[in-house]
Queue: 2 jobs
Job 1
Amino acid sequence: MALRGMGVLLILWVTEGSMRDDDFPFYDLGTIPAWRDLRSLRGTQSQDQFDKEKYHKQLKELDVQSLYESISRLMKDSKAFWPADGPQDGDVASYAGLFERLAWHCSGTFRLVNGTAAGGCEGARQRHWPENEWRDNSNLDKARGLLGQVKHEFGSQISWSDLLTFAGTTAIKASGGPAKKFCFGRVDDVNGKRSIPLGVEGVKECLGNKFCKSDFECPVAFRWPEQDEADHARCNLTQPHHRLQASHSVGLIYVYPEGPELKSSAKGYSAKQVHNRSPRFSALEVRDTFKERMGWTDRETVALIGGGHTMGRTHGNCNLTGTKWASHPYNEVGPFFEAQAGALRGPTDGTCGTGASAGLAQNTVSSGFEGPWTRTPSQWNYDFFDAMLTEEWEPVKSPFGADQWRTKSRHSTYASTMRLTADLSLVNDETYAAIAREYAADHAKFDSDFADAWYKLVHRSEDNPNENDLESKFGVCTRFEFVK
Ligand code: HEM
């Protein structure tokens, strides 16, 4: 076993760095090479311990306004090595959605199960294995690589955990969205050890199997009685250790976006549709994850998903049918550094498209879904709930083949937007729908609730489980007074 582990280590050593430095100058600041993480987990590499005291003292001198300005500038500065979204949707180029998803996926690991907190962005373990391997985190290595420029500029004045959470908050604020306050003080971990209980996906062998139990499948599969037997099973909520993951173990940590597929005998099934994903059952899975595992109320859940999917887009504008990747778009050997050739994620492979734009911009595949949620994905707006409440949505396939939804009226003002089944769950559950209607009618209430929930999202973690812990301990906060 030890020898097999060494084999993996050797391969990683040889191929690490296949994404060229001149293409992505600060890539390695954002994502730690897998070989280094594995050595650190084995205890064979001495660590530079993060000096907490020094950091907290230094924070008092942090020029928050110039940090905000650096991130906002970067957000609008589309780079050839990872072009910003916007042009493909008739919008201006912006990394706002990407930075917001980065902060959400870093913070959304937070779990509150039976009063015990786990996960959260403090520690910045998303830079490390295993979080940087999770399918849910695809292409976030590029976002961290872009922010490496800001990290390079500010050096030890800002920890990665503070930078990732502040970048997401800045992205919202600088796009016209609501943000009330942000507090600094998060410290970084030296490796991803504390993320291992949250799940290791698809890894068959490494480190003599010490850390590499694959949690891809649940020990006890659960399907709704109305669900197709061939569809993904859920991890039953009563399985204790799986409450650290999401209601589905697929992708590992959040919610299964496609939702459950109905079986042909279920009420509402139609053989004429390209899919029969159920927003009603998806709502139960959203609640299972957001309320039972992450500790959010229904109101916070609706505000967070609605605000999150006001910005940015999904990426899956590539049809792999007939290619060798068709049945197996992801590497499941691992641990597999995302940028490494063979990881099938992003520019190193160029699985989609040809020439200079292979794997980039309109050829990016992250989740396999395709399209924006709103008409201006780079700017805060109120399309998300309005479109879901006023339009009829019909099932379609993305070019990649994922099950999603579009407006039935092809002349609608929202015709260019899309929805996931998990989005539509918010108008197919009585409690969620009442809140969605309230937000569609009262934008100020939506803004205020989203800003509060976002603050809580990026401030709670295993180390500081209460939303005001960072403020009361370190007192370095901004209310964005400098933003005009
Ligand atoms: C039911 C819960 C959720 C599901 C199933 C879900 C699913 C997804 C999926 C599939 C994508 C597309 C990724 C890609 O292809 O690039 C995405 C993107 C995104 N999500 Fe979510 N999400 C959820 C909740 C949230 C929340 C709570 C937030 C923030 C508060 C959020 C913020 C975003 C943003 C900003 C993007 C756009 C990324 C970009 O433009 O590159 N999501 N989400």
Job 2
Amino acid sequence: MPFVYLLFVLALTLVVFPVRRADIKNIHSTIVTSEERSLIGRMPTNSDQVAIWIDIKEFPDPLPRLIIEAEDRNFYYHIGFDPLAVYSSLVSHLFSDGRRGGASTITMQLSRILHPEWKKYPVLIRKGLEISNAIQIEFWLNKEEILESYINLVPIHSNAKGFPLASLRYFKKNIRFLSMEESVAFIILMRNPNPSYETFSKRYIKLYESFTKQTFYDHSLLREIYDAIFKAKGENIYALSEEEGHYLQWIKHQYPNQTETFESSLSKEMQSHLLSILNSELQTLKRWNVSNASLIVLSLSPEEKNIVQLKAMIGSKNFWDENEGMVNGSLSYRDAGSTIKPLLYASAIERNLVQIHTIVPDEKMTFSLGGGASYVPRNSDLKYWGELSLAESLSNSRNIPAVSVVNQYGMENFLNTLREFGFTHLRQSPDFYGPGIALGTGGASLFQLTRAYASFPMRGVLPKVFLGKADGQPIYFGETKRMFGEDTAEEIESVLSNAKLRTRAFGRRSYLDFPFPVALKTGTSKDYRNSWTIAWNESFVVGVWVGNFSGDKTMQVSGSFGAGRIVQNVFRYLVQIKPSQNIPSKFTDLINFCKESGALASEDCPKMSLLYSKRKKKPDICKLHRKENFKITHMNFIYPQDGQTFLYHPNDAMMTQMIPVKIRNWSKIPDTDVYWNEKVVKQIPSSGEFRIPIERGDHQLSIRTGEKILDRVVITVK
Ligand SMILES: [Zn+2]
């Protein structure tokens, strides 16, 4: 009577608690799709064991048959367990040394995989649970569904769960293309995940011969298969194709939450197209000792203010590469070279320390680092161009003006600005980085740089990056923050999209010239180890790095030559998706400035046309080139300029904070004096260059001959 009652309870349990294929399938990983709604891959949820789920119809022909033959010959005829096998296993458990016999059916093994928590029970109880659960599974699922779940979930080797994943990880191929020989190897590993080569080959030959009824002879193939599995570099791979491997790893790291779906913003079509551009350009760059590259594409949408979308993330040329593939180059910190300058100048303009037309010195300068050490910045061409406008020094990427601006800005202040731009890895003190921070020595990742540059097309707003929706909820990277004004953004953008302005450094025709509007900045780090180009228009921001993961030098590959050629191709592809248009300026007007004095151009001045803020006061008209002055030698201040602001930093060494002064034609007119706040400055060298110590307040510098004032500037030290 109790037995009948027990059966009744069992039958009731079976019916009340269904086992669904969808549940088995989904609890194990998050489905990640692309913008086009195609499957990119799966991410693990609760454990590091990852499943990629492949439909049984897609398994290669002999695989299911081989598994049944090796694991459970009666699979199609039992109801979840094999009474005879269980009986004999019970006997051997009770009367021998307790070693487990081959009593587990595929269904019972599946039950064990689905319930890892049962491991803690004594073996007899566990077996009982497995058997009843196996019966339940058989009641709700058909044999095909059971087999499909099993093949997708069975642990094979070192965190690789399921045949589809193991196939991707060890043989770099979709399960559909798994060979008979490779399938046999996995079947061995299901029982013994870490066999020696000897054990492996013995069992292999035995299984192979029993499956095929043929003699196995290809021992070199066997060795190859063994090595492919046991020499594989660790880590989880769960992307369906190589383009998205790095992306999935990163997303998993960013969002470890368990969700069923992650609809990413990534475009699969764009990813695969860009990867092929990258690889074909790398073929050419090989000759210059360049071995790898990374790429980021962010897209702007007119509807969503303050947000950009991550459209492409390519970490390296080949995700499966044995040595370097796993490194996501778009997230590595590298010497950022000149890519930092636009961020520096935009922030300095925003603080009124300089203006886009300000004349800055590009001359030999020494900056004291304290303790007797000093820093002498150099330009990449090892030349000094003399005085030039901020606009030209930005577009021609002069180093010394950048160092002198960061000096005005203050190291501590600029480090904080960079941290606000998202360079959160800059945790050291200003002394650690030194003034070289203006030249990228603090390092940056391609992803950070590309996002920071998005502040230009976003008109001063550092955007948060939309990555996708997890179970319908939007997921962002970072926070939105206004970094500088709309007018400043337009000023910098117009300089960096002006091919004419950069001719002096980059030549007339280069990879940086486009037949449509694109603004860009290149960067090259010391010894040509890193070549960068970040470019944007109103719809996309593209960042490209090329170099070597090993840190080896390239053969003089600059940012414009290496990364520039890839950006050129990438943008030509992107404008096919969204044409690039000239955006009319809203916050600035086109103004003619004098190239030499930085003042408003007169008719006789060498001119440069720059966008200049509507809200700022225009400078006076150029005195240097006015006709009446032509006959006499003109003497005036090249720098500082009238109205310029300097910041005083109590923590920095006094020496680094002297204000550089340069006078045009000094010593050409006799009996002239320079006054610093009504006090004569003594011993001015014949070059007309000197420095004055910094003091807070408004100061006046003037050049006088007798009672006549030849030039006068007022500067402010804050
Ligand atoms: Zn002029």
